[in-house]
Each structure stands twice: as structure tokens, then as C-alpha cells.
Design goal:
alpha+beta
């Protein structure tokens, strides 16, 4: 009787211990494999297939296939995003279509008092007019007569 009682207690303890761990089938689904693959690929880790050790043969193949697909997809997406981040800062600011820089431009400086007012334009007249109008907004027109212009290439 004691022997039977001991066997019953051992069997009960063994079954309880086996129930505490995760079910081997729980990690062997298509969804679990895809989730692990996407996570590893997104984080730049090497493939980790250790979760497949407790799987039965039929479910192992399904989970492995889902893992590979999700891993490759997430890895390619991460690489593409990293490339875009590297290229984006080099592009520089975009100018409005009508204001693209010209091949040649003029720069004129008008001096009034001790200040210099600068104007730029496609032609010499446009650059001089821009510099003089800025000067006139601060001083009398008679003070804005000294001008120097040069062409930028």
C-alpha cells in the first residue's frame, strides 16, 4: 500500500511539473514562428531556431517556414530603411520650382552710413535694385548711391 501511495504521489508531482512548463506545441505554430522571425530580423539578430527543438516534426516544418519568411522580410525592410536614412540627409533642401539657382547671377552692395546692403539677381539691374530698395527702407535715397556690383559664376 505504501508503494502504491508513493507511486501515486510521484506520478502526481511529475504531471504537475510537466504542466508548469510551456506546451511544446505552443511555440510550433505558424504565427509563433512568424512573430519570432519578424522580431529577430527587425532587431538585426542572427537567426535563432532554438525554439524548434521541442516541436514535433509536422509542426516544426510549418513554423520554420514562417520564421524564414518573416525574418527575411523584416531584415530587408530594416536594410532599406537604413539606406534611406543615409541618403535622405545628403539630398539637401528642395527649392521651389520657380526659384532654382541660375547658372550666373549678380551681387551688388550698396553702402550707406557704415552699413552695407546686399542684393542678388539674375541681371545686374535686378541685383542693384534689390540692394538699393533694402537700403532705402533704412536710409534716405540720397544716402544709398555708392554701389559695387560683381558677377558670380
Amino acid at each position: 500500500m505504501r508503494l502504491l501511495w508513493s507511486l501515486a504521489v510521484c506520478a502526481a508531482l511529475y504531471s504537475c511539473a510537466a504542466q508548469k512548463g510551456p506546451s511544446p506545441q505552443q511555440d510550433c505554430t505558424r504565427e509563433a514562428g512568424a512573430l519570432r522571425g519578424a522580431k529577430d530580423g527587425k532587431n538585426g539578430r542572427n537567426p535563432d531556431l532554438s525554439f524548434l527543438q521541442s516541436c514535433v516534426e509536422e509542426s516544426r516544418h510549418v513554423s520554420l517556414s514562417a520564421y524564414r519568411d518573416a525574418y527575411e522580410s523584416a531584415k530587408n525592410k530594416r536594410i532599406k530603411e537604413e539606406r534611406e536614412e543615409l541618403v535622405a540627409p545628403m539630398a539637401g533642401p528642395l527649392l521651389p520650382v520657380g526659384r532654382q539657382p541660375a547658372m550666373q547671377s549678380w551681387v551688388c552692395e550698396v553702402e550707406a552710413g557704415s552699413k552695407i546692403f546686399t542684393g542678388t539677381g539674375i541681371s545686374k539691374d535686378e541685383a542693384l535694385g534689390s540692394a538699393k530698395s533694402t537700403c532705402v527702407s533704412h536710409y534716405q535715397p540720397s544716402n544709398c548711391t555708392t554701389a559695387e556690383c560683381r558677377q558670380n559664376l
